[in-house]
Amino acid sequence: MEVVVTMDIRYGAVKHDGATMTAGSENWSSTRTGPGWYRISFNPQFEQTPVVVAAGNSGGAAGVHADDNVVCVRNASTAQVEISTMDVASRGQVDEGTYDNASFSFIAIG
Known about the structure:
Elements: E1 9-14, E2 20-22, E3 28-34, E4 37-42, E5 51-56, E6 69-74, E7 80-87, E8 98-99, E9 104-109
Antiparallel strand pairs: 1-2, 1-9, 3-4, 4-7, 5-9, 6-7, 7-8
């Protein structure tokens, strides 16, 4: 018996300011909702809540680097997901341990 599995996959990269860096699958949009907080909206929505993985990109605007950030996936739903980026090693800067704007890539599979 043959088993057919279909997956809906969305992917792309988001700039530190919330704009699209790489459109990827092109069926999503992004917004920065606050310092270090982003919302990715899926259009059309997934049929079931997707599994989402995100990772920081080192790059973007001058002086904006994600190589020392933690990227967290939060509150995934069929319509959207929240991503947060936090600076954890600021090389002696005063913002260590705070939410920090950073670029990232993501993939959502549902």
